Amino acid sequence: MNRQNIGIIGAGRVGAVLGAALERAGHAVVATVAVSAASKSRAERLLPGARLLPADEVAAAADLVLLAVPDDVLAGLVAGLADTGALRPGQIVAHTSGAHGLAVLAPVAAAGARPLALHPAMTFTGTEADLDRLAGISFGVTAPDDLRATAETLVGDLGGVVEWIAEERRALYHAALAHGANHLATLVSEAMDRLRDAGVHEPERVLAPLLGAALDNTLRLGDAAITGPVSRGDAGTVAKHLQALDAVAPGSVPPYLALARRTADRVIAAGRLRPIDAEPLLDVLRDAQAKERAA
């Protein structure tokens, strides 16, 4: 892809890092929007050559405009840019939202600009360390047919790999990533908290090898990697877990129940646990769920 003048609207964790990566690839980030003190500091560190401008002026200055804003803000931003006349024919306007596709960019197309949905399947800290993590990651891309080659080149400049996502599958694609990554972070934090409650002083040290092995095994083996009392149908152990959680951290009971039930469903469906052997376990889970609803 030829050198592009790029404008970043949203110097948050994602926008600033992607802008810095594009500069590494030979493009020029000429302007960015940075409102908060944190985003201004981030822009200063990662995009030192970019001018801090209002959104419409950033768009007007760029050949490629990257919209890196929260999902619920995106539609209003796009409409506002179109209304101000900041967009022009031939300009590329890409957003980084996983949940949205091209529909949210309809005003862009109406203005003659070229719409692109470009979502990095990665979690960001907004620091220089993120730049090295971009190599080889997937980007969920939705693009018009005539922009596919450009999208592939742009993702290549970012060090990534294109994963084409149909417009109607964007929400499902994003739900899968959020369920896997965001809920994993919540789950691990919960596990660390409960280990502290159990008297473990360094829960991260205890969990790191266990969770690392579990993740690696699951990515390779799928449901065959599931272990533990639910996979064995150990109803008595699960009942003890629920009693212990209820005594110390009752807020942890509902997510434990939901995940235990989903785990049971998967191991039964995979033939790992016979339905007849699962009944005592399922009874424990049903009783606990009924207790939760009645509380």
From TrEMBL:
Q: Which SUPFAM superfamilies match?
A: 6-phosphogluconate dehydrogenase C-terminal domain-like, NAD(P)-binding Rossmann-fold domains
Q: Which domain of life is it from?
A: Bacteria
Q: Which residues form the DUF2520 domain?
A: 138-263
* Entries under Pfam families matching the protein: DUF2520 (PF10728), Rossmann-like (PF10727)
- According to the entry, every stretch annotated as the Putative oxidoreductase/dehydrogenase Rossmann-like domain falls at 3-120
InterPro entries, alphabetized: 6-PGluconate_DH-like_C_sf, DUF2520, NAD(P)-bd_dom_sf, OxRdtase/DH_put_Rossmann_dom, TM1727-like_C_sf
Q: What's the name of the protein?
A: DUF2520 domain-containing protein
Q: Which organism is it from?
A: Dactylosporangium darangshiense
